[in-house]
Design brief:
single chain; alpha+beta; Four Helix Bundle (Hemerythrin (Met), subunit A); paralog of FGE (formylglycine-generating enzyme); 4-stranded mixed beta sheet; 3-stranded antiparallel beta sheet; globular; binds N,N,N-trimethyl-histidine; binds fe (iii) ion
Amino acid sequence: MTTLKERIAAELSAARDRTLAYTDTDDYLLTRQHSPLMSPLVWDLAHVGNFEELWVLRKAAGLPPMRPELDDLYDAFTHPREDRPSLPLLGPEEARRYISDVRSRTYDVLDTVDFDDPDPLRGGGHVFGLVLQHEHQHAETMLATLQLSRQPGVVGDGTLPPARTRSRSESPEVHIPGGIFTMGAGAAAGLGAASRPWAYDNERPAHRMFLGSYWIDRHPVTNGAYIAFIEAGGYREPQWWSPDGWEWVERSGVEAPLYWTKDEDTWWRLRFGRQEPVPEDEPVIHVSWYEADAYARWAGKRLPSEAEWEKACGGRLYPWGDQEPGPEHANLGHRASRPAPVGAFPEGASPYGVEQLVGDVWEWTDSCFRGYPGFRSFPYREYSEVFFGESYRVLRGGSWATHPSAIRTTFRNWDLPVRRQIFSGFRCARSELL
Ligand code: AVJ
Ligand code: FE
């Protein structure tokens, strides 16, 4: 039997291996800013360690600061991403040394921590869940930066299951009957209890919601379906776009998902520095909320609300149940550097038969990012609460780049509606016609 402490130690070391693998490249690539949307990779590298120092060593264990002068540099709120390259950041080697010094002290704290401690950070090992979740989120951010860098070589490939041949009787949409369901995660808990898993403040409290009946797509929208929208003149027709979305199209001149180009009759995409024909049967990726919203209107549908998305999962930790994600369930954890074809994970279906809800692409929803009724910020307002309001749209389900331990059916991600450097796609829904 592995103990909870052993499990946390193993997960910490796996997360760190991943961070170090994504930053195992030349100093130029690490220190350069590849896009004003993203930090230099070396910022993420040291920020992960500074966050761990702040939460595990100082707040949970009460240790004094190791390098107080670093806090300001790596506070995401003091300096916006576009300003980070001009800061006196630690160099790659110094950053690696700093985060490894923090990590060895983290293991000391883990050795002595009491999981029954009433303190909400120490109890149940909550703070270790926080830093694990955070490090894996930054690893995904680093992948988005590496994709933006257009450099070949840093990110490798892998293999995925092929699309299953779909049985003819399987409808492209799934009907979800109306009624009450419970949305969100239960009370704050540690890493130990499978029935009460680790969750962020924005996933709580669990609350009952009534939804009318609706239809939701069985799979995310594919590249092939999205190409039909483009070729039908979708980017030239204001009627499909929200007013802000149309303004964005006119201002930016976009005509296709990020990284796409057309050559004669073939659509190509750039993926980690290599050009390849766009595969028709994979979920579309690198689209903005505006594009997802316009496609849905063109298709005679709409985006699901996040409540509709979550209900379609069937009320468990994962769509397929409570078992940890395996290769048969979902494309998570960077098995390959791409989404899998639709239909590749019949065993990952929800009880309603909705597939690929988790993994492959983050799915844009129609919902703005807000606190659930009774929301209480924990442990810090700057993680979620300061983003609540009209500006951000919620994404659900995780992508191929999301670590399996960093996703669950209640997990909420958010971004601005113009953003598409993230691994974002979508599926459509529609209300039941009465
Ligand atoms: C949840 C992805 C929007 O990157 O801004 C990382 C995650 N917050 N460190 C972000 C996050 C603090 C956050 N997103
Ligand atoms: Fe962070």
